[in-house]
Amino acid sequence: MKKAFYILLFLCACSSFAQEIALLKYSGGGDWYANPSSLTNLIAYCNNNINTAIVAKPATVEPSSPNLFSFPFIHMTGHGNVVFSPTDVQNLKSYLNSGGFLHIDDNYGLNQYVRKEIKKLFPNQKLVEIPASHAIFQKPFSFPNGLPKIHEHDGKRPQAFGIFSNNRLVLLFTYESDLGDGWEDPTVNNDPPEVREKALKMGANIINYIFNN
Fold first, then answer.
1. For 38, what's the count of Cα atoms within 13 Å in the CB-facing half-sphere?
2. What pTM did the predictor assign?
């Protein structure tokens, strides 16, 4: 009964005119609050360019909160340690299996910590690399080579990894790209306009995919 209520809450949130997205406030000591202007700018870009109606200011939600089910899209970023408690894991799994979506953007340094937490969520599945042919790279903006490179760190190519549940992409992990840095205010990283635009377009593709699949 309780799970059914949460699913209903989630579906109501998705069907309403104005939708909300949220930033995940996790435990473990990592800076979950990194890139403070990124989601606000991504929301504005999507509302102006792909006809979304997302509430202008993103919410903040903890992984164990029942409010998690109010958001069709949860964004997670940072540079440091991440720890999901057993309650976090149970709630996040229910959320993802009930139609939710988690985007984890490695802001350089998150990779080594978050992978073990993803394993808690999906112990019997491996992160798989998402090919450039996947729909998330096709529309509304075309990325024929897959995930774009926004910031350089270790000279590695950008990679998009995913977890699928019942053939639906429920978790996206973007690595060696730094999309969130590209979404930030222009003065934060002084990215060239074309680089920032590329990051925002990829973000818009993610939002578009979530709202249409």
1. 27
2. 0.91
